[in-house]
């Protein structure tokens, strides 16, 4: 805490200079005391400003960390609200030796209650008879048109950061197989029918 600045007053009867015109010892002592008092007060003010800046920076960092943790928690606890089936896997209409996964339009419900409407899309020319994990990136969490990605590595589809998992589905084994429906997941702790 800063000290109050207190400066001694000069006495009118005190000599400022001696017979040779040099400052007297008493005057110099008084002047040095005042300079020391000013220096100590300024140093206390600077120290207080530094402490305040550090406290403000620390508070801001903590608030940022708390906001980031809340944002991550909202994503991790998000799920897809949809009617019917969110993922459909079928033989590709452009190449019968490949598969296509169609993602239905759906609503993403976040753990904090926010939601985003996501437009559907399709992933074509995928391998037949393969389990895929489907996800998209949405940093703004605004939904709309997103770019879906299909991966065979479940670790790539980890719901963290800006990555939103849609679900998993296995593509048909051969060109004569019917479409396969599935994917999507429910809120944490929900019992599936």
Return the average pLDDT rounded to an integer. Answer: 84
- Strand order, main sheet: write it out: 6-3-2-10
Which geometry do the CA atoms define?
A: rod-shaped
| Element-level helix/strand string | HEEEEEEEEEE
* Helix amount: 25-40%
What structural category do the secondary elements indicate?
alpha+beta
DSSP E strands, number = 10
SS field, number of helical segments:
1
Tell me what portion of residues adopts beta-strand conformation.
Answer: 25-35%
Biggest sheet character: 4 strands, antiparallel
Return Rg in Å. 36 Å
Low-confidence stretches: none
The CA-CA distance between the termini, in Å, is 65 Å
Key terms for this structure?
3-stranded antiparallel β-sheet; 193 residues; 4-stranded antiparallel β-sheet; 1 helix; alpha+beta; 25% strand
Written overview of the protein:
With 193 residues, the protein is an alpha+beta fold. 27% of the residues lie in helices and 25% in strands. The protein is built from one helix and ten strands, in the order H-E-E-E-E-E-E-E-E-E-E. A four-stranded antiparallel sheet has the order 6-3-2-10, with no helix packed on it. The mean pLDDT is 84.
Structure described in brief:
With 193 residues, the chain is an alpha+beta fold. It contains one helix and ten strands; from the N terminus they run H-E-E-E-E-E-E-E-E-E-E.
Layout of secondary structure:
Elements: H1 25-76, E1 79-81, E2 87-91, E3 99-103, E4 106-109, E5 115-118, E6 121-126, E7 131-137, E8 148-151, E9 163-170, E10 180-182
Antiparallel strand pairs: 1-4, 2-3, 2-10, 3-6, 4-5, 7-8, 7-9
């Amino acid at each position: 805490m800063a000290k109050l600045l207190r400066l001694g007053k000069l006495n009118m009867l005190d000599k400022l200079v001696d017979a040779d015109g040099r400052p007297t010892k008493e005057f110099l002592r008084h002047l040095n005391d005042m300079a020391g008092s000013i220096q100590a007060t300024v140093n206390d003010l600077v120290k207080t400003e530094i402490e305040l800046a550090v406290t403000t920076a620390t508070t801001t960092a903590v608030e940022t960390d708390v906001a980031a943790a809340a944002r991550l928690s909202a994503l991790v606890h998000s799920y897809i609200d949809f009617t019917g089936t969110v993922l459909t896997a079928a033989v590709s209409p452009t190449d019968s030796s490949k598969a296509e996964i169609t993602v239905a339009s759906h609503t993403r419900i976040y753990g904090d209650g926010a939601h985003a409407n996501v437009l559907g899309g399709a992933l074509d020319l995928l391998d037949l008879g393969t389990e895929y994990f489907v996800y998209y990136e949405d940093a703004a969490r605004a939904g709309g048109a997103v770019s879906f990605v299909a991966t065979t590595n479940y670790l790539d589809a980890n719901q963290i950061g800006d990555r939103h998992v849609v679900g998993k589905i296995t593509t048909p084994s051969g060109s004569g197989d019917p479409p396969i429906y599935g994917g999507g997941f429910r809120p944490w702790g929900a019992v599936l029918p």
